[in-house]
Structures are given as C-alpha cells and as structure tokens.
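PROTOCOL LOG
Step 1. Enter all chains and additional molecules of the complex.
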Amino acid sequence: MAQLKLEHIDKIYDNNVQAVYDFNLDVKDGELIVLVGPSGCGKSTTLRMVAGLEDISRGKLFLDGRDITQTPAKDRDMAMVFQSYALYGHMTVYENMAFSLTLRNENPNVIHKKVLAAAEILGLTSQLNKKPAQLSGGQRQRVAMGRSIVRNPKVFLFDEPLSNLDAKLRGATRREILLLHKRLDATMLYVTHDQTEALTLADRIVCMSMGHVQQVGTPLELYDAPANVFVASFIGLPPMNFFDVSVGSGELNGEGFKVPLTEDEKEILLPYFGKTITLGVRPENISEGGNIPVSVFSNENLGMNTLVHGHIGEKGARISAKLKGWANYKPGDTVPVKFDKKHFFDKESGNAIRKGK
Amino acid sequence: MNEERYIKRDRMRFTKNTLSSTLALVAILFNVFFFVSIYKSDVGSWYYNILIGASILYNLVFMLAAFLSSEGVKNYKTAYSYVLFVLGIIQIVRIFIIPMSAHGATVTLGGQEVQVMKDAQFIRVVIYLVISAACCFTSAVVGIIRSSELNAHLKTLREGQ
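Step 2. Run joint prediction.
Step 3. Record the structure below.
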C-alpha cells in the first residue's frame, strides 16, 4: 500500500487553458479519497496527472516519498478503472484480467492464481469464460476492477466508474467498491460528479470547482461545515437553500421573514452586525411549526419525508423543505416552518462565517 | 499431483489450446506453399489434366477442414484431433500422387526431352507436404493429450463438488 502526495500541482494545456490550480493533497496509506465536483472542474484531469496520462505542468507528485512527477505511467505502479470499462471485446473475462500480467511476462501459473483470487473477491468465478458482450454493465465494471486487482498496484484510480450504470446497479456496485476497499485496505483515488457516491464512499472528500480545491475533509465535515457557498450547494440533496439576510440585534432579517439567533450565533455574527450575509439552510434542517410562512407550489412525497417547494411569504425567496412524514400540501397552501440549523456565509467572498474566523 | 501440475491443468478451463490451433493453421500455410509451387509450373500441357482439377478441389476441402479443426482443437474438442490425423495422412499420400508422377514424367519441348518436375522442385514440394502433415499430426496429438487432461481435471472437480 502507499502514501500519495500532490504538491502545488497545476495543469496548463498548450492553448494556455489552466485546468487545475495549485492542487495540494496528502493521501494516507489505505485511504479512499473522492474527488468530487461538477463537469469541467478538473477532477479527472487531476486523476489523469496522478496516473501519468497527463503531464504535470507545475508541482510535484510523490508516491511513498519518491518523486514520480516525470515517471512514465507504466512505471508508476497504479491501476486505473475507467468509466467506459476499456475491456477487450475479443477476450474472455479471464483473458482480460490476465492481460496486463501476461504483458509483463509473469509465470502463467502465478497469473492463474491471481486471476482466480480476484474473480473470487468480485464474484466473477462463473463468468470467467464469457466475453464482455455477454455481461451486464455492473459485471463489466467488476471485470475492469478485477483487472486492476490482479496487478496488486500501490494505488487504485477510479474515473467515474459507475456513471454508465443504472441507479440500482450503481448502488450495488458502490457497495462492492466499498467492501473491496475494506478488504484490500488499498489507497484509492476516486473521481465522481455524484455527491451521493462521494458521501457514501469517501474517507475524505476533495471538493473542486473551476480547477480549484474548495474544501478537503471528511464527508461529515463537508456536509456539516461547508467551507463556502459552493461546497454547501454541491454537497447535499436536495441542495441547500440560500437567503440574503441582514444581521440585526438578536435576529436575522430576510425578505418576508425573521430568524432569531442563539447566543453562539450572535457571537459569530458580531462582526457582521448591520451587514448583509448569506444564510444557508438545508432542506432537512427545516421543520414544521415555526413563524416562517412558506407558500407551497409543489409537494413531492418521498415515503418517509415530503419534499415541499415554495416561496417564503407570497413572492419571497424560493425554498425547499424536507418535512418529516407524509403530507399532501396543495399549491397555494401556506406551511409555517422553522430553521433548525443554520449556516452563515460572507456575502462578498462566499466563505463560511465561523467562530474565531 | 503437485500444485504446479494442478494449476497447469486448471488453467486449461479458461485458456484455449492455441498450440494445436496454430499448428493446424501452419499446416494450411505449408499446403498453400505446396500448391502454389505446383500450379505455377507450366511444362507443356502435362499439368492440364483431371488430376489437377481434383487437386484444386481437395486443396479447398483441406483448407476448410483444417481451419474448422483448428477452431475445434482450440476448444479442446477431441473429434477434431482425429480429423487432423486423417488430414495429415492424406498430405503424406499426396506426395505419391502429383509430385511423384510429375517428377518421373518427361515431355518433349522444342525437340528436347524435359523433366516435368525437376529434383529441386520435387524436394521442395515434398518438404512442404511433410511439414504440413507433421503439423497436422502434432496438432492432433497435442489436442488429444490436452483435451483428455482437461476432461480428467473437470471430472475431478465435479467429483470434488
């Protein structure tokens, strides 16, 4: 297993477009790091730089303390799993999994043992004689993973491996990846644009936007204490509600609503007294029974919860609330709600306002 | 049975018998060398007879049968090994048909007696046919050995279950 260190890494393409800015990350031994962000944020580029498929324009990459910035991809001892599986259609599952080892002229008996062991881990033993075309998407992705496992690499790299799968299969394969990580205790870098995948898989998440790292932290840290408006809006489903509010004495004043502040919150917002800030509230942190009137325009029953979309007051800010239980609000109904947990962000910078900051 | 041998046999469950298959294809290749060497010969009208017609047809049959057999032995089908045996025997027999008769025949061209197939060409075509036959035999033997090993191994696995 391995430790990976990315130090001040930039990626600038030949046409002077910069895809990644000053990327720093320490990946611990056996850690599963998920790079998450919207399309075009530079997460796949970063992964490809780690794999050696893209040149690193500036900065250094270390594997177990060894500088591998200029090391060719084949000598980096990393295995990559692609979204498109990249399996050879004319080869059987067995041959696909054995292929990389065959190229390295390994003993066929050793290859056989490794392939059978990997197939056992991935539940592919009965599929070894089949061709990729005879397999489902999930099975194909498992073959792609198996091909990585047999190499016993220092680092596993996953580039959106579940994006081609349907929702049900994605959930099942996600659990398999998690089990695989626990079983192999391997260092893994995983790229996805799906925040659910990031939250469920990661030991730590790197949230990226426009080539910049926005926040690095555990899933709970990103969910509970987002560093800025971008992270707050990207992590969590449905996304967080944002309102412009002015900080008054003991309360926040928004368009058509007032929110009382606790003593702690008053202390945090003391430097912002009289100023306008951004208030963030997650839909699941909104409950019925307060003094904020929400005029409902749609009602989605999710089983245990009801997702209510509406406006504050008659024509105030839009709001989504995930209310407990099954409710059947009609468009035009007014629901009084309260905010159970609040996040504060600087209006100018978008950064979170926290104690001691 | 030691572990190494066991794994070698177990590998056959997932790998093809490429040695037998390749040998069968090499047999086809040398058969092509043989008939090209014969057909490019043009000594008077000696070759223009029914035997050459039959030879052309047999070449087509041989190539088809050898190719199908190469696919069969690749997948450890014992029956195709026997087909290759028969094809190998026929390749040997063929030495005694066109090459032998052409080597022993003469025609008169421009008032001179000319040997239809000279020694060098005769030796060459015989070598082609012998190699083609040898490849068929080796492919068949390897195929039979490997497929019986695999069947025995599969039987052991089934009994183990």
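Step 4. Note key features.
The first strand of chain A starts at residue 4 and ends at 12.
Chain A has two domains: 4-234, 241-346.
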